[in-house]
Write a structure and sequence with these properties.
Chain A: Belongs to the SPCS3 family. The complex is a heterodimer. Chain A is of the alpha+beta class. Chain A folds into two domains: about 1-30; about 35-160, Immunoglobulin-like, CATH 2.60.40. Chain A is built from one helix and nine strands; from the N terminus they run αβββββββββ. The N and C termini of chain A lie far apart (about 80 Å). The chains are: A alpha+beta, B alpha+beta. β8 of chain A pairs antiparallel with β7 (about 245-255) of chain B.
């Protein structure tokens, strides 16, 4: 009962269990943080609304995104992945979500920002439904912890719309 | 004398059997736990190890992800693990586009890797992308322009964003050294890239003009570190992922623990050593 093998085994088991327990507690502590992020998005310009040669509508736009996600960072946060998605409904699809821009925020200092950018990913519809379309711009964020459960939430900003004709 | 030998032998046989049975119990109880996890999480593979760096800095190689597959619809931003037909290793990437059908509720999904700020990622992924480029050239592209030199899009074009293949950043495919690198900072405003590069870009550009599938549900996904979306990784001719491709959503995460699996896979000798040592331990624990 006192051989090296038994002691090593007991030590290993105990340390693994203790580590797992600590990780779970670290993740649990995230529940107690107060989070109040804020964001605002403006469309500076709709650069193009066109029909692609093989069929679907495509939009190119310039956005002004300002956000303050500093309250999302806790001691157990590794990074926050934030992205802006355009969400709209069409006659065929009950929901379309197209990610327009995203960013990885590695720490709290970078979490308050304002950026003007054109859309990083192409905004392409399945079909020709974008003329005059109203859509929401939603800022989503995913908090990736150092260990444990990942959290995700969003701010929905409704009321944006596209021009009625191709341009 | 003969009786003593017989009794000693029978004791040894009994001990051997006992140990064999307890070993069997250990193995089967871990199997039971694994299967129960599969049932509870609804995913065929409830725990996966991250093998590539395409999700850095969020998920490093060697991290463990806990997956869960609920009936909730797949939404943009979720990190999903999916299987491509013909590939046996599942891929962990992020959803960037979702198109959900009204009547059937089925979903089209596109996924993606992330930003190529690391030069090593551009170089390391080159091999895979050369293979993928072969696949691409055979079937996905349709268009009037041939793949070759001297296309008029070689000229600098400012402001024509519809020509810009934002999704298909050739920097990530190892061509950056030839074009002059455009290392992107963490928050950069993306003015349209004016310079079109050498002809190697053409095949990649054609992929964007390929046939758009209008099939039912599609998912487009991304790994956080690749600039283009994952259509290159999908099966030939496949433009979207559907729900049945997806094995689960990542809901939890443990760093570093997966290295054990990676080491055992890449150096199987360690696996044999471990199993041998465990066996020895079981046999020698007779007292």
């Amino acid at each position: 009962m006192h051989s090296f093998g038994y002691r090593a085994n007991a030590l290993l088991t105990f340390s693994v269990t203790a580590l797992a327990f600590i990780c779970a507690i670290a993740s649990f502590s995230d529940k107690f943080s107060n989070q109040n992020p804020s964001a605002e998005i403006q469309i500076l310009n709709i650069n193009r609304l066109k029909k692609q040669s093989y069929g679907n509508d495509e939009v190119s736009l310039t956005l002004d995104i300002s956000a303050d996600l500093q309250s999302l960072f806790t001691w157990n946060t590794k990074q926050v992945f934030a992205f802006v998605a355009a969400e709209y409904e069409t006659s065929k699809n009950s929901l379309n979500q197209v990610s327009l821009w995203d960013v990885i925020i590695p720490d709290k200092e970078h979490a308050k920002f304002r950026i003007q950018t054109s859309n990083k990913y192409r905004f392409i519809d399945q079909g020709h439904n974008l003329r005059g379309r109203e859509f929401n711009l939603t800022l989503h964020w995913h908090v990736m912890p150092k260990t444990g459960k990942m959290l995700a939430d969003k701010i929905v900003m409704p009321g944006y719309s596209l021009p009625d004709a191709y341009k | 004398m003969g009786e003593t030998v017989d009794s000693v032998k029978s004791i040894q046989i009994r001990q051997l059997l006992t140990q064999a049975i307890s070993l069997g119990m250990i193995v089967t109880s871990s199997l039971i736990i694994w299967k129960a996890l599969i049932c509870v999480t609804g995913s065929e593979s409830p725990v996966v190890v991250v093998l590539s760096e395409s999700m850095e800095p969020g998920f490093q190689r060697g991290d463990i992800l806990f997956l869960h597959m609920s009936k909730d619809p797949i939404r943009a931003g979720e990190i999903v693990v999916f299987n491509i037909d013909g590939r046996d290793i599942p891929i962990v990437h992020r959803v960037i586009k979702v198109h959900e059908r009204k009547n059937t509720g089925e979903v089209d999904v596109l996924t993606k890797g992330a930003h190529p700020t690391k030069k090593s990622l551009r170089d390391e992924t080159l091999e895979d992308y050369e293979d993928l480029q072969l696949i691409f050239e055979q079937g996905l592209a349709t268009g009037k322009n041939a793949i070759g030199l001297g296309d008029d899009t070689d000229a600098p074009t400012f402001g024509a964003k519809d020509d810009e293949p934002f999704e298909l950043d050739p920097r990530s495919f190892g061509y950056a050294e030839k074009e002059g690198s455009q290392a992107s900072g963490f928050l950069n405003s993306t003015l349209p890239r004016s310079r079109k590069g050498p002809s190697e870009k053409q095949p990649l550009k054609k992929r964007a003009k390929g046939v758009e599938g209008g099939e039912s549900s599609n998912s487009n996904m991304d790994g956080d570190n690749n600039p283009g979306d994952d259509r290159l990784l999908y099966a030939k001719g496949q433009l979207w992922l559907h729900r049945h491709h997806i094995m689960g959503r990542a809901v939890g995460f443990l760093p570093y623990v997966g290295w054990v699996t990676i080491i055992m896979t890449e150096k199987p000798i360690i696996k044999y050593i471990l199993i041998g040592a465990l066996g020895l331990l079981v046999i020698s624990s007779r007292d």
